[in-house]
Design brief:
The structure holds 2 protein chains of 2 kinds.
Chain A: H1 10-14, H2 17-24, H3 33-37, H4 48-66, E1 74-75, E2 91-99, E3 102-111, E4 114-120, H5 133-142, E5 152-153, E6 156-157, H6 160-172, E7 177-182, H7 188-200, E8 204-208, H8 215-224, E9 231-233, E10 240-244, H9 255-266, E11 277-282, H10 287-291, E12 294-297, H11 303-315, H12 325-340, E13 345-349, H13 354-366, E14 374-379, H14 387-399, E15 402-408, H15 412-415, H16 419-428, E16 431-434, E17 448-449, E18 460-465, E19 468-472, H17 485-492, H18 499-507, H19 515-525, E20 527-529, H20 544-557, E21 561-566, H21 580-584, E22 598-600, H22 602-608, E23 621-628, E24 631-639, E25 647-651, E26 684-697, E27 717-719, H23 720-725, H24 732-739, H25 743-747, H26 756-760, E28 765-770, H27 779-787, H28 795-799, E29 808-814, E30 827-833, H29 842-845, E31 852-854, E32 860-862, H30 872-876, E33 883-884, E34 929-930, H31 936-949, H32 961-965, E35 971-975, H33 982-988, E36 992-994, E37 1005-1008, E38 1010-1012, H34 1028-1045
Parallel strand pairs in A: 7-8, 7-15, 10-11, 10-13, 11-12, 15-16, 16-17, 21-25, 22-24, 27-38, 28-37
Antiparallel strand pairs in A: 2-3, 3-4, 5-6, 5-17, 9-14, 18-19, 19-20, 21-26, 22-25, 23-24, 23-26, 28-35, 29-30, 31-32, 33-34, 36-37
Helix pairs in contact in A: 5-27, 7-17, 8-13, 11-12, 11-13, 11-20, 13-20, 14-16
Chain B: H1 2-41, H2 45-57, H3 75-78, H4 81-89, H5 91-97, H6 100-109, H7 121-136, H8 141-145, H9 152-194, H10 205-210, H11 212-235, H12 253-259, H13 264-267, H14 282-289, H15 303-310, E1 312-313, E2 318-319, E3 330-331, H16 344-350, H17 355-359, H18 376-385, H19 400-408
Antiparallel strand pairs in B: 1-2
The chains are: A alpha/beta, B mainly alpha.
Chain lengths: ~1050, ~425
């Protein structure tokens, strides 16, 4: 057995009796059945006559119901069928998901004219076919009931002519400034539209606002590079990566592009095992930190100090006070690694502190990374925020010098640090216009609501990174009376061209050769990559010592408990708060859904006497009041390892008051705690007061739901140098099994028939997960939800462990109790977990109606219409991947609305959002079991395509939703009978192992051992003793074989 | 006795029907022989041409009668082959170029013939070969329709008669039992009277019903009946065999597919490509009905409904500008529940199954009705019996074991079932 133990939650670590009991149970909570029955049935007598009466009634009722007639159904064809649309066959169109600071080049799947799924666009050199959770979920935003249906004037419905007329009058009579307060403008055409507007209204100013700001990074570069820009970072060229407070895989700048590039350097090629080494210094555990080889927890006030220490280590300088011993050692290690990889390394910093950014530039410059891993010819144009300008705007508004404000895609009344001041200013502005798509917090004080269209209803071009153009084309006509904001601006500027023509005209003259061909190709592929130059030279004029001094003096001021606010991969700055898919996506680290909470480190929790739900706090978690700088919030807590001692972190983006659906308003709004006293917004603060105010708060946290009940290894890991010595390291059990011909005789006695011959004939589907590449971002979870019509169940049901996710990403911690008793620096492993399609599946044997059984292609099939809901299968599943429909979450049952059978558990499925459902997948009704099907609808479709073409199925024809969504291509899938296919290679890899191997369930999903690029020996040599005669047995055939050749 | 009599009586009917059929077939025989010889003489051109004709030409042309376009019989004599080749490939170009014969046709029909640039000269020759055979030896209606189905109704009547016969026996037995019971009672009453015992009361309906055993029996009977009805109805819940709703347009498949022989996939073009066979959109109807505005049965009434949907001015022969088009709301006949996935392409394209196999003889239906139950048992039965295109489609090469066994003669055919065609997740997901 392994010395190193992996665990998911503290209950599991401490092996509390409740946990031990619950993990054996099928369902986490106690079943309410007996409670309900108590007193109702148990004490009453059920006389024979009553029984007979009931029997008679139900039989007659059933007879009547069974004799019902079928309703008349219509089949309505097109009047004139568009040639490219064939009902039942999906079309894919290239487009771009861009939303403020989020970007992803996508292909949109359209069925019968409605967009239903987002896929990555592999033509895009930035994202390389990957997606993000937000991009995946964005299709549901199109069908959001809370979207404005038409323009409004002072709260009353209006039409566009009326609105345009009034706004034009107001604009031309504006005295004072006209301000366009917007999120980042990333398209050349949008830019041009604004310029035209400016030409008509010269007093126009543009202020770019981002609630989660990168202004300091831009300003530092303005000084060192001479241009306010964020250069493009090449993680795919960096052998050493150092991140300081920078979640570049999850939320920083351009994660959709950084994640695939980073993963390229983290995947290990067996022939030439190399990988980058990643150091991370941060105050709370981010997914980036979770992937780091060396991670050190630092207080927010001291994160910048790390850079000082690192700079001093590299360039000679004194030691730095205030850092912990662990951090100091890690910095030293990082410095050594960086020096060795000068020019091939990268230091990134996510702090909104101009000194820290300056020092980061100094370090990168001294390492010669500019021009190598940092490309100054390409700028990341998503980063444009300007904290100073925003602050100035708020004071201008209050002083009355702003005559008109036009708000585009930002919501400062919710997420600006001084929202009240902003709102007060807004009231003083004469003409207020908003392009926002809903009546949000800001809209309350806006006179003209002129809703912009969703990106799936729009035309546009996007330049997220200089020279990397992507295009947006509409998938559907606007559902409501909305208009693209650029078109509105142009209209008000007196230009009545429609925006498509405007965009197209901007591109004329840029074609080499035939324009029509050029244009069609760009729209079809969705991308255009060109050379680019930002015209900046090498960094210069960096005052490193000045920056270091400023950092040190600032750090010395911090005292007491510190609070840090962070962005999650789902909700962002609150923009996605009304997207139930993202609300229900568990935070990758804390596994909390539907709201935010205070993440408290183990030791601090002990000192403050705070408790989670568990043995002593049966009902729920403690609730604390966090007060800082005169602002306070009340949030429940969760205790997490990896958190710096004395640091409490809270996610931003929750606690909105008007996102649309009232179920999406949970949590606390922490934006008022952002400190904007200086030039830059600060997302951390010291001297926080913590007070326990309540206990027993039910937090919907999926941390220990669905725990695999086994003592053996679930996660295998090794270090790079151990792996170089022996490819089997960390995976010796599998080695023994694969190389010892007598292994099975010694270890198993199987009652199952040997079906290997069946699987060898035809197809045999299998999956493999590279745990080195998985970053835990959750894109696959959302993709799976949308592809397979997996219902969203809401907070209450998640709390009761009734979440329906077919796949989850288990997050495991492990740490050394002797050196790190409070788990400040744990190792983390992400493990995507879905139905393993065991060839000897334990669930299949216990189904009384054979609703779940095995196919000849190795799929563990689930026939919903046969399932009677005994849930025996879920009880018998060792991976806990089966999900039961406790309610009719999606309105599949015929008796639904307005009946006693309806329930308000149902969150997303109103009539509009039902349009997102995949028509090829059954909408499950109440009372049936469901689980991952390996996206069997895609497998069947791929097989049919091959049959139609009269050719064998090729590698890569059949893909699952999780596989295509993965930004790092960590999930591989295919037919294991296709020779030399990717999946066969992944399974033949020495790192591949299957879970719970010792019970011989023959899982169809292989996981690949995690390799950490660390110096330490991770697991002492645990090679099982191989008896001598086996070695002989192994050698003999090899000798014979070689003799034949002679 | 009765049944034997009936059988004896019905035998002549069956025999005479069979004799009539034989006579009919032999009278056709001579004609059919010439036709067969002519077809054989084309060396396969007929078959190839037939396929091409049905998929490309039959929507506008008939061999022996005028339709949207002229009758094709005799064109091969009237025009030389080269001229026909270029005409079929692009007639409009010829009209524009001023070819006198082309202009003449155009003036006569005032319609542009669709261009078929993808057809090779050999294809066109094949079509002409087909047309020639069809013109010289037209198939008689009987060749198509004759089938020995005539005897079937008699057989169906037989089983019905059996039930009536059994019921009659049951009634008879009941009467006998009742009478015998009466006799027995009278007899025993005679004895009882003599012995001064109380007499047996006559059995009345009321008395019978008060008997607890009768009550129990009746209860069980009702329970059984209700259970059976529930089971029976529940099983057919959602099944609509013989469903034959009235459609918004009285479209006759008998006329289009039967009489005019238009290929099914000309209108239902999705059947070969994907999940749905497609109900043709109105613009497909207009391919022919631009020219044909009158039907044989309903005159202009039904056809004008298409015009109303799409906005066609039949007098001016042009589409009405800015017309608000209204889709035609057909009543869906074949319905499957949400948990069933069915794909037409899988069956029509990959499986090469004829439409009629599931939909019945559509070409004979004036009003379409659902021929089969579409129940799972029906599907499974077919999947168990139907062979897949195992050797002709390269997709199936992955089933190496079966290929080996076929070669070795261990198995003689591969059914859908053998490659997993009755597994749950082939249709339910």
């Amino acid at each position: 057995m392994k010395e190193k133990k992996y665990w998911k939650g503290l209950d599991e670590l401490n092996q509390s009796p409740e946990f031990l009991e619950s993990k054996k149970n099928e369902f986490a909570e106690e079943l309410p059945v007996l409670e309900h029955l108590n007193g109702l049935v148990q004490d009453t007598k059920a006389p024979r006559r009553d029984f007979l009466k009931m029997l008679g009634f139900s039989l007659t009722a059933a007879t009547v119901a069974a004799s019902c007639e079928m309703p008349i159904r219509k089949a309505i064809p097109y009047v004139v069928k568009p040639e490219e649309i064939n009902p039942g066959i999906a079309n894919y169109y290239a487009s771009t998901f861009v939303n403020g600071s989020d970007f992803c080049s996508v292909l949109v799947k359209s069925r019968e004219g409605r967009p239903i799924k987002i896929e990555g666009n592999s033509s895009c050199q930035l994202t390389q076919g990957g997606t993000t959770a937000r991009a995946q979920a964005s299709v549901l935003d199109l069908y959001d009931m809370a979207r404005l249906r038409n323009p409004k004037i002072k709260g009353k419905d209006a039409n566009w002519e009326q609105v345009d007329k009034e706004i034009k009058t107001a604009l031309s009579s504006t005295s004072g400034d006209i301000v366009l307060l917007t999120s980042a403008i990333v398209g050349p055409s949008s830019q041009k539209a604004i310029e035209q507007f400016k030409a008509t209204y010269p007093q126009t100013k543009v202020v770019v606002y981002d609630a989660i700001s990168n202004a300091a990074l831009l300003d530092a570069n303005a000084q060192t590079l001479g241009k306010r820009m964020a250069p493009y970072y090449h993680f795919d060229k960096a052998d050493v990566v150092v991140g300081v407070g920078c979640d570049f895989l999850g939320t920083w700048l351009l994660p959709a592009a950084f994640a695939p590039a980073y993963a390229k350097k983290r995947k290990v090629n067996p022939e030439n095992p190399q990988m980058s080494r990643h150091f991370q210094f941060e105050s709370y555990m981010s997914i980036t930190g979770a992937k780091a080889d060396y991670r050190s927890s630092v207080k927010p006030s001291q994160e910048a100090l790390v850079l000082v220490a690192l700079y001093n280590e590299l360039n000679g300088g004194g030691s730095v006070n205030g850092l912990s011993e662990h951090t100091k050692q890690t910095v030293k290690k990082a410095a050594v690694a960086l020096k060795a990889a000068a020019g091939k390394s990268l230091v990134v910093c996510g702090l909104n502190d101009v000194n820290a950014q300056m020092l980061t530039n100094a370090i990168n410059s001294s390492l010669g990374n500019y021009g190598n891993t940092i490309d100054t010819n390409r700028a990341i144009k998503l980063a444009q925020s300007d904290d100073k300008a925003m602050k100035q705007l708020v004071s201008d508004m209050n002083s009355g010098s702003v005559g008109t404000i036009i708000i585009n895609d930002v919501n400062p009344a919710y997420n600006y640090a001084e929202a009240d001041k902003f709102v007060a200013g807004l009231k003083k502005v004469k003409t207020t216009i908003s392009f926002n798509d809903r009546e949000d917090e800001t809209a309350e004080n806006i006179s003209y609501l002129t809703p912009a269209s969703h990106y799936l209803e729009s035309w546009n071009d996007v330049e997220a990174v200089s020279g990397h153009y992507t295009f947006i084309q509409p998938l559907i006509s606007p559902l409501f009376k909305t208009r693209q904001w650029e078109e509105s601006l142009l209209n008000w500027a007196g230009n009545n061209t429609n925006y498509y023509d405007f965009v197209r005209n901007n591109w004329t003259g840029k074609a080499n050769g035939d324009f029509e061909l050029f244009w069609q190709k760009n729209i079809q592929e969705g991308v255009l990559h060109t050379a680019a130059s930002e015209g900046v030279g090498a960094p210069s004029g960096i005052d490193a010592s000045g920056a270091a001094q400023a950092i040190q003096s600032n750090a010395a001021k911090a005292q007491g408990i510190e609070v840090v606010l962070y962005e999650t991969v789902g909700i962002g700055n609150g923009k996605y708060a009304n997207n139930p898919f993202l609300q229900e996506l568990p935070d990758p680290i804390s596994r909390v859904t539907w709201e935010n909470c205070a993440v408290v480190p183990l030791k601090t929790a002990e000192t403050l006497g705070l408790k989670e739900a568990g043995s002593e706090n049966k009902n729920g978690n403690d609730v604390i009041k966090v007060s800082v700088n005169g602002k306070s919030i009340e949030v429940p807590i969760t205790i997490q390892p990896g958190q710096t001692e004395g640091v409490i972190s809270v996610a931003m983006g929750y606690g909105r008051t008007k996102p649309g659906n009232k179920k999406c308003t949970l949590g606390a709004n922490v934006f008022p705690m952002v400190n904007n006293n200086g030039d830059y917004n600060q997302y951390a603060a010291a001297n926080a007061q913590i007070e326990k105010v309540d206990s027993g708060y039910p937090l919907a946290q999926t941390q220990t739901h669905h725990t695999i009940d086994d003592e053996r290894e679930i996660v295998n890991e090794t270090s790079l140098h151990q792996y170089k010595k022996d490819h089997w390291s960390g995976n010796y059990n599998t080695q023994a099994k694969k190389t010892d011909p007598h292994y099975a005789d010694h270890h198993y006695f199987s009652l199952y028939p040997d079906r290997s011959e069946v699987y060898a004939n035809g197809h045999h589907w299998g999956m493999a997960v590279d745990m080195n590449a998985c970053i835990g971002c959750g894109a696959c979870v959302v993709a799976c939800n949308i592809e397979n019509n997996v219902p969203v169940v809401g907070k209450r049901e998640v709390y009761r462990a009734h979440e329906m996710h077919w796949m989850r990403i288990d997050r495991y911690y492990s740490f050394d109790k002797t050196t790190d008793p409070y788990a400040e620096h744990p190792a983390v492993a992400f493990q995507p977990m879905m139905c393993q399609h065991c060839d000897n599946a334990p669930c299949e044997n216990v189904c009384p109606v054979n609703a779940t059984n095995h196919s000849s292609e190795g799929l563990n099939q689930m026939a919903y219409n046969r399932c009677i809901g005994t849930r025996y299968c879920a009880n018998n599943c060792p991976f806990k991947v089966r999900r039961f429909n406790w309610f009719d979450f999606q309105g599949a049952d015929s008796f639904y609305k307005g009946t006693i059978l309806s329930n308000d558990e149902n969150v997303i499925m109103d009539d509009l959002s039902r349009l997102v459902l995949n028509p090829d997948v059954t909408v499950r009704s109440r009372g049936v079991m469901e689980k991952c099907s390996f996206c069997v609808q895609n497998l069947q479709a791929a097989k049919l395509e091959a049959k139609k073409a009269g050719r064998p199925l090729k590698d890569g024809d059949a893909k699952t939703a999780c596989q295509t969504s993965c930004p790092t291509q960590a999930i591989m899938f295919g037919d294991m009978n296709i020779k030399d296919s990717e999946i066969v290679k992944a399974w033949d890899n020495e790192r591949a192992y299957t879970l719970l191997d010792h019970i011989e369930i023959l899982s169809s999903v292989a996981y690949q051992t995690i390799i950490r690029n660390v110096d330490e020996v991770l697991n002492p040599d645990e090679k099982p003793h191989v008896p001598a005669h086996h070695e002989e047995a192994n050698h003999q055939p090899a000798n014979e074989h070689s003799n034949e050749h002679h | 006795m009765k049944i034997v009599k009936y059988l004896l009586k019905s035998t002549p009917t069956v025999v005479s029907a069979a004799i009539c059929l034989l006579l009919l077939m032999s009278s056709l025989h001579i004609h059919a022989q010439d036709r067969t010889a002519a077809i054989a003489a084309t060396n396969g051109a007929y078959e190839a041409g037939e396929k091409l004709f049905k998929s490309n030409c039959s929507s506008c042309h008939k061999v022996n009668a005028k339709m949207t376009g002229p009758a094709l019989a005799g064109v091969y004599d009237k025009y030389e082959a080269e001229w026909l080749h270029s005409w079929v490939k692009n007639s409009q170009a010829m009209v524009k170029a001023g070819d006198p014969r082309a202009v003449q046709i155009y003036n006569e029909y005032k319609l542009v013939m669709t261009s078929f640039p993808t057809l090779q000269n050999a294809d066109i020759d094949n079509i002409l070969a087909y047309v020639k055979v069809e013109a010289d030896f037209p198939p008689t209606a009987q060749t198509v329709a004759a089938s020995p189905e005539g005897a079937a109704p008699a057989a169906a009547n037989n089983s019905q008669m059996l039930y009536i016969f059994l019921a009659a026996i049951a009634v008879l037995l009941a009467v006998i039992a009742f009478t015998l019971g009466k006799v027995v009672r009278s007899a025993s009453n005679l004895v009882r009277e003599r012995n001064n015992q109380p007499l047996l009361e006559p059995i009345t309906a009321g008395r019978v019903l008060r008997n607890r055993w009768v009550k129990l029996g009746l209860g069980l009977l009702i329970f059984g009946f209700l259970s059976y009805t529930t089971y029976d109805n529940a099983q057919s819940l959602g099944r609509q065999k013989n469903y034959q709703p009235e459609q918004p347009i009285k479209f006759s498949h008998q006329l289009h597919a039967g009489k005019w022989g238009i290929d099914c996939q000309y209108c239902h073009s999705g059947a070969n490509k994907g999940k749905t066979a497609l109900i043709p959109s109105a613009n497909v109807c207009m391919n022919c009905h631009k020219a044909i505005d009158k039907g044989p049965k309903y005159g202009t009434k039904e056809i004008s409904k298409i015009y109303a949907a799409i906005g066609w001015d039949k007098d001016k022969k042009e589409y009405i500008k800015d017309y608000e088009q209204k889709p035609i709301e057909w009543v869906r006949i074949h319905n499957l529940p949400d948990h069933v996935y069915f794909n037409h392409a899988q069956h029509v394209n990959a499986g090469k199954i004829a439409c009629q196999k599931c939909h019945g003889e559509i070409q004979e239906m004036e009003v379409v009705k659902q021929q089969n139950s579409l129940g799972m048992g029906w599907c499974i039965t077919c999947h168990r019996e139907t062979e897949v295109q195992f050797s002709s489609n390269d997709y199936y090469s992955v089933y190496e074991k079966y290929h080996k066994e076929l070669k070795e003669g261990k198995i003689d055919k591969i059914t859908v079932e053998k490659i997993g065609g009755v597994e749950c997740q082939k249709c339910h997901y």
